[in-house]
Write a structure and sequence with these properties.
heterodimer; A: about 375 residues; mainly alpha; Amino acid/polyamine transporter I; two-stranded antiparallel ribbon; globular; B: about 550 residues; alpha+beta; 5-stranded antiparallel β-sheet; elongated
């Protein structure tokens, strides 16, 4: 069932993956308070360990090119179990949207507008998000390339400007923590930034993707995102060292240290604004996915009318999720990885395995062939 | 959203009413049409003239000139034309003189049925002569500036092309001036305009389609495009939208623009216009469609991309490095004209820490004496500036100077010294205003958006500005012009050659992807200085020449 008729190119999908990961660069606090100055190690390990997971996502996309994630569940598990799982996923998408929106609000509250209630900030953000969602997947993902490149640029420039503050001794001593901490951090990396990519499976029918380009897209996208994450973490560690775990937003503190003679100082607000925009598009994608998922649950094609409802719901949901920021961090560290793991890792793998056993995309070859031919025609033109 | 909902409901209601109206009145209308057609041409010249005059309401500028011709002046005829719409020499040399002199030496007279054919083919000297049998057609010919020849005893009349009226000559356009590049501009005459374009593109592929729009004005509208380059779907869409128009009058291309544009409620226009033939020719060569409207020097081009506002003709006539610099300056200027007041308000009311300390003191000093909040101050100044600008456009030339003095002195200096606004605010608005003129076709969107952006800035500071910016981006991304995304050139990596930088002409070998279809290549990539030596043939030629000499 195709709800949104517009289509996006595979390149844009790749950049969407990349900026989805990049926007998590804000939330390095989850890691840094556990593995401290060794936080870059779990990123590396997590990145490598997640290759099979990405392959699973990719296979799901390739095998069910005309279904969203909920559609896949329906076909694989049958209507009843599929629907139950689908409800779970809708809740998962909504929670993710609410979490990210709260993050955006909190981030703004900490950095720019300390006295404004975060509810106002969230409402303002959601209004724009809803506007974007109503225009469909094209608008939601249009700026992905632009923002990915902007983020690269920001990271590059800030690293350059911090060159005098970088102290490589901050990386020492390496591998001195308990092994369980590394495992814990890796688990967080696998579930929070990378596993969240499962939401992009909801875009499947809107993406022009062939077997060949799918692998390229997923790996290039994830690669770009992870490299940004890694560079940001290493920069923060090299500058802040062991003090890093004290801050809720290490990235911002690092940028606050930028001083270039008298000409450039206190520029972190500009970076903050740029990061805010990145987070905004992540929220937009998440809200879009939630809207599409709900529309699909109720078998309606008028997802546009749902957008505002989802937006309002997400704002209120965000306010009741956590009483305060500290609890947010603790729960994100200790509970969420296990909880999210079900949706992000267990169910997709299970789905793929069952689909393989049931040899499920039955009628697919023909359709797929047609679709691929269409794509070739598109590529050729 | 609510607005869009209302609009949709309204649209539905109007279409519903139209359908009812049509079904109810269709019978009536048919009879009306029949009644009009009932006045048929007759044999008697007198009757015909009377009917023709009736159709044209016996207007005073309708000239009826009765003549007699033939070897013995046995045929009586009349020429009918509107005074001032025709070219007098053509009338006398092409119609009257041959008619009078015809048949002098002939013995046999042709009979009535043949007479018109003979007149059409042998006698009248004009570029186009057509035989018409309906009086309404004859009247329409008269209205276009053609001369109608009616002969007694003939069932029909000749419509002879004698168009000629006073028109402005080709001059330099006032709205788009260039330092380097052709200085000719379009005029109010449709034919002149199409010929100006055709003279730029001397290719058989350049196709022209003519339509008549406007029930009362009967304005000629021409579509010009390169067959095989322009996207046929877009051509079809433009044709459909123009042919669907059911309007009374088209006085300027702005009418057409408003009727066919995709986003009537957007601050951004989705149809571009130009007054210069070279600009329009360049756009046609990119695969766009030009809409030339009779009676206006402004030629529309569709589809429009956002980037087009930032491209000027001169970008392609000066060297690429400098052109790219100008392009970037234009982008920054547009950014300034939309966001400068908003950012100033945000900095002044929320983010003092971002302002360098010394400047902060200056700001504080300036704000000390002023009674209003920054937001109100900015509104006052923007409003004053818009008033001045509008006054500058409307005022007669000699008074203009007085206004500029009032504007510069009273609004700027006196307002500051009187303590109504702060000096930094005057500077901000001044730079905002001046920057707006760098991007002429987005001046209107800029002046609207800057006020809109000030509101979130006043409420939420830079956060508000950021989200205002995001909202603008979302809106821009959602716009489409005739099926082509408005922001297409920014999301297609291949079309980036002509966005933030202007690539050298020899590197822009492909037409924009979203617009053109079919023939996409503009030329082959080469680096100019290498060219004479790049091909072996040339070298051989050189060698041969060397050997011979």
């Amino acid at each position: 069932m195709k709800i949104d008729q517009s289509q996006i190119s595979s390149t844009r999908f790749m950049y969407t993956i990349a900026f989805f990961l990049q926007s998590s660069a804000l939330l390095t606090a989850f890691l840094s308070s556990i593995t401290e100055h060794d936080s870059w190690i779990p990123v590396l390990i997590g990145g490598v360990l997640c290759i099979p997971l990405i392959l699973v996502y990719r296979s799901l996309m390739v095998n069910f090119p005309e279904n969203t994630l909920l559609g896949m569940l329906d076909t694989v598990y049958g209507p009843v179990v599929g629907k139950i799982l689908g409800v779970g996923y809708v809740w998962f998408f909504l929670t993710l949207s609410a979490l990210n929106l709260t993050d955006l609000g909190d981030f703004t509250k900490i950095t720019v507008l300390t006295e404004t209630p975060s509810m106002i900030l969230a409402i303002f953000c959601v209004l724009v998000v809803v506007w974007a969602v109503r225009h469909g997947v094209k608008v939601v993902t249009r700026y992905s390339a632009l923002f990915t490149i902007t983020e690269f640029f920001i990271v590059f420039i800030s690293t350059l400007l911090l060159f005098d503050k970088i102290d490589l001794k901050n990386f020492l001593p390496m591998f001195q923590l308990e092994p369980i901490k590394y495992i814990h951090s890796t688990h967080i990396i696998a579930t929070i930034p990378i596993g969240e990519l499962v939401v992009l499976l909801m875009l499947t029918p809107s993406v022009k993707l062939s077997r060949k380009t799918a692998t390229k897209c997923w790996f290039l996208g994830v690669g770009m995102g992870m490299i940004t994450l890694l560079v940001v973490l290493m920069r923060d560690i090299a500058v802040l060292g062991n003090t890093m775990r004290m801050f809720a937003l290490p990235g911002l503190v690092t940028m606050r240290l930028i001083h270039l003679g008298e000409s450039l100082s206190r520029v972190e607000i500009l970076f903050a604004v740029a990061l805010m925009m990145l987070l905004f598009f992540k929220v937009a994608v998440l809200c879009y996915v939630s809207t599409i998922a709900i529309a699909q649950m109720f078998k309606t094609k008028k997802y546009k009318n749902l957008a505002l409802i989802v937006g309002i719901f997400v704002v209120y949901y965000g306010t009741i999720l956590y009483p305060n920021n500290v609890e947010h961090v603790v729960i994100s560290q200790e509970m969420m990885p296990f909880f999210w793991g079900i949706f992000e890792i267990v169910i997709p793998i299970l789905t793929l395995v069952i689909a393989k056993i049931r040899k499920l995309p039955k009628k697919q070859p023909e359709k797929q062939k047609q679709k691929q031919e269409v794509q070739h025609a598109w590529d050729g033109s | 959203m609510l607005f869009g909902y209302l609009i949709r409901k309204l649209r539905f209601l109007t279409s519903y009413r139209n359908i009812q109206h049509q079904s109810g009145n269709s019978a009536n209308e048919e009879t009306k049409v029949e009644k009009q057609n009932e006045i048929k041409i007759q044999k008697s010249l007198h009757e015909n003239l009377k009917n023709l005059k009736n159709i044209l309401c016996d207007s005073q500028d309708l000239n009826v000139h009765s003549i007699r011709f033939g070897s013995e002046s046995q045929f009586s005829a009349a020429i009918v034309f509107f005074d001032g719409m025709i070219d007098n020499p053509t009338l006398t040399d092409g119609i009257l003189r041959p008619l009078m002199l015809w048949g002098m030496g002939k013995k046999e007279d042709p009979d009535d049925t043949d007479l018109l054919n003979i007149l059409e083919q042998e006698v009248v000297c004009a570029s186009t002569v057509t035989k018409e049998e309906a009086l309404s057609e004859l009247a329409a010919g008269c209205l276009c500036g053609e001369t109608v020849l009616l002969v007694d005893g003939c069932m029909g009349g000749l419509v002879i092309n004698t168009k000629g009226w006073e028109k402005r000559s080709v001059t330099e356009p006032a709205s788009e001036t260039v330092v380097r590049g052709p200085r000719e501009g379009f005029t109010e005459n449709l034919r002149t305009n199409t010929s100006l374009i055709r003279r730029k593109i001397r290719n058989g592929q350049l196709k022209l389609e003519q339509l008549k729009v406007g029930e009362k004005t009967q304005t000629t509208v021409c579509l010009m495009y390169l067959e095989g380059v322009a996207n046929p779907k877009i051509v079809e869409e433009v044709q459909y939208r123009i042919s669907q128009l059911d309007v009374e009058s088209i006085l300027e291309s702005g009418y057409i623009e408003e009727y066919i544009e995709d986003a009537p409620f957007s601050p951004f226009s989705t149809v571009d216009y130009s007054e210069k033939p070279d600009v329009v020719a360049a756009r046609i060569l990119e695969g766009r469609i030009a809409i030339v409207v009779d009676g206006t020097p402004f030629v529309l081009t569709v589809p429009m991309l956002f980037i087009e506002s930032f491209q000027t003709a001169e970008d392609y006539y000066v060297r690429p490095m400098y052109a790219s610099l100008l392009r970037i300056i234009r982008f920054i200027a547009y950014f300034i004209t939309v966001f400068a007041p908003a950012v100033y308000i945000a900095l002044n009311s929320f983010h003092h820490e971002l302002i360098p300390t010394t400047l902060l003191f200056t700001f504080a000093k300036a704000r000390e004496g002023t009674p209003f909040p920054v937001f109100v101050e900015a509104l006052i100044m923007i409003f004053a500036f818009e008033i001045l600008r509008e006054a500058g456009v409307r005022l007669p030339r000699p008074v203009g100077q007085a206004i500029s003095i009032v504007g510069a002195l009273i609004m700027g200096d006196a307002a500051v010294s009187a303590g109504i606004v702060g000096a930094p605010m005057v500077i901000t608005i001044a730079i905002t205003a001046v920057a707006g003129f760098l991007v002429p076709s987005q001046t209107d969107s800029g002046s609207m958006l800057r006020v809109v952006m000030m509101i979130p800035a006043a409420v939420l500071g830079l956060y508000g500005v950021a989200f205002g910016f995001l909202g603008m981006l979302v809106h821009l991304a959602s716009l489409e012009s005739f099926g082509v995304p408005y922001f297409d050139s920014f999301s297609n990596t291949r079309d980036m050659q002509d966005t933030l930088i202007r690539a050298p002409l020899w590197a822009m070998t492909r037409r924009p992807k979203g617009i053109a279809r079919g023939d996409m290549t503009r030329g082959h990539f080469f680096i100019p200085p290498l060219r004479p030596f790049a091909s072996d043939k040339h070298q051989e030629d050189d060698a041969q020449e060397g050997g011979e000499s």
